[in-house]
Design goal:
By secondary structure, the protein is mainly alpha-helical. Helices cover 74% and strands 5% of the residues. The termini are far apart.
């Protein structure tokens, strides 16, 4: 009896394939060409390929007679191109979904999108994906060779769309999902950036006062011949220390920041502790809670609507919440669902999701419209995040004024206290 063998890629083989794909992208070079079309009109453009011969062959295939093909000149400050950003992937998702819905073949759509890229790395990646599809690979296999840009969730959704024969619909859903997620990330960054930058500016102003302004006052104080007030003496001592040992303070601050980042990335327990501490902050913690719930609901709704089984969908969702606390909670939910528990029961046991969210999931499970309920949850909490971010600036303004007034105003008062004391004595 003949036995059929099924070859399956080992993790090492898959990693080697991804390495070869990245190597292919790094070997691609952008060429500038000039040629004439069938009417004799002179045209020019750019094309990414491994060598000049391939560029000429591709141009002739398109009916263009190349007269000049040469490598594109490198910019003065490097030519590697900018890092591919998540927003560029979101734009690509929308572009390819529109192309497919318009009936443009996938390979031709990839070529059109690649030709319009200004980021060399993005252009080379899309050119490599196009070449891979021309070689017989499916879209999800080609995207899977670039896990940094196309995560497991993205690839699984595309795979589900290809299997069901509704790739254009799924790509449209993926594009909307990526746009919503990036918009939500932008709002969260905006909420965090404003107070952080104001605090940094306040500390810089305080450091400048201590290093350059306070020493000038100290020289004036020496002529008084009297003891300084305790508050003024404290500021003078801080100024002396900062002037003498500023490099130690700078090294300590930089070392602490990099040390915390290193430990955060290496220690899941520390990352979980920090995430839980941030979630307990009054206003910012609420925004992060709502953001995590919105991302959980939208991601699970998209994967479930695409036909991915619930347990597999939860695998992808765990890494998309943006919070180690919710990440761990979703993994526990997945384990409970895998042994037969209802999703709403598993979510209730996590003690992170509001009762409204659990109830809507329960209604969705009972009515067979889980994806619709999840999208409604996502829309509600995305709107809540929008409102919270808009309100955050007005809430923080008085708080920030208090911080700046305490730091800067306190030093100004401390410097003028001896002068006020002297004036009282003279009077």
């Amino acid at each position: 009896m003949a036995t059929a063998t099924v070859s399956r890629k080992t993790p090492a083989a898959a990693a080697a394939q991804r390495g070869r794909a990245r190597a292919e992208v790094s070997q691609l070079q952008t060429f500038v060409w000039v040629g004439k079309d069938k009417r004799g009109t002179s045209i020019k453009g750019e094309y990414a390929a491994k060598n000049v011969s391939l560029v000429k062959a591709e141009l002739r295939r398109q009916g263009i007679n190349p007269t000049t093909v040469k490598p594109k000149g490198k910019p003065l400050f490097g030519s590697a191109g900018k890092t591919i950003k998540a927003r560029e992937i979101a734009v690509f998702s929308r572009q390819i979904s529109v192309m497919m819905q318009a009936g443009v073949p996938l390979v031709q759509g990839m070529e059109i999108i690649a030709s319009g890229q200004s980021n060399i790395r993005m252009k080379n990646m899309l050119t490599a994906i196009k070449a891979d599809i021309e070689g017989g690979s499916t879209l999800h296999e080609s995207l899977g060779k670039f896990p940094v840009q196309f995560d497991e969730l993205f690839v699984n959704l595309v795979k589900a769309g290809e299997s069901a024969g509704v790739l254009d619909t799924v790509l449209d859903t993926v594009a909307t999902y990526k746009e919503n997620i990036e918009s939500l990330k932008g709002k969260i960054k905006k909420a965090m950036f404003y107070p952080a930058i104001v605090l940094v500016v306040a500390l810089l102003v305080s450091a400048i006062l201590l290093i350059f302004v306070v020493p000038q006052f100290e020289n004036v104080f020496k002529g008084f011949g009297a003891d300084l007030p305790a508050f003024t003496q404290m500021i003078v001592n801080a100024s002396r220390f900062l002037v003498s040992y500023w490099w130690i303070v700078l090294l300590a601050v930089v070392g602490t920041i990099f040390g915390l980042i290193f430990i955060y990335k290496r220690s899941p327990a520390f990352a979980h502790f920090c995430a839980r501490a941030v979630l307990k902050l009054p206003v910012i913690g609420q925004i992060l809670h709502q953001s995590a719930i919105a991302r959980f609901a939208r991601t699970l709704g998209v994967t479930f609507r695409a036909g991915v089984p619930l347990v597999e969908a939860l695998d992808s969702v765990s890494g998309a919440t943006g919070s180690p606390v919710y990440n761990q909670a979703v993994k526990r939910i997945r384990e409970d669902v895998a042994v037969g528990h209802q999703l709403q029961l598993a979510m209730r046991q996590a003690n992170l999701f509001p009762n409204m969210v659990v109830q809507m999931v329960a209604i969705g499970e009972e009515s067979g419209a889980l994806d619709k309920m999840l999208f409604k949850v996502a829309e509600f909490y995305e709107e809540e995040v929008n409102n919270a971010v808009d309100a955050l600036a007005s809430l923080l303004e008085p708080f920030i004024m208090v911080i700046i007034g305490t730091l800067v105003g306190g030093m100004v008062i401390g410097m003028y206290l001896p002068i006020f004391k002297l004036a009282a004595v003279v009077g």
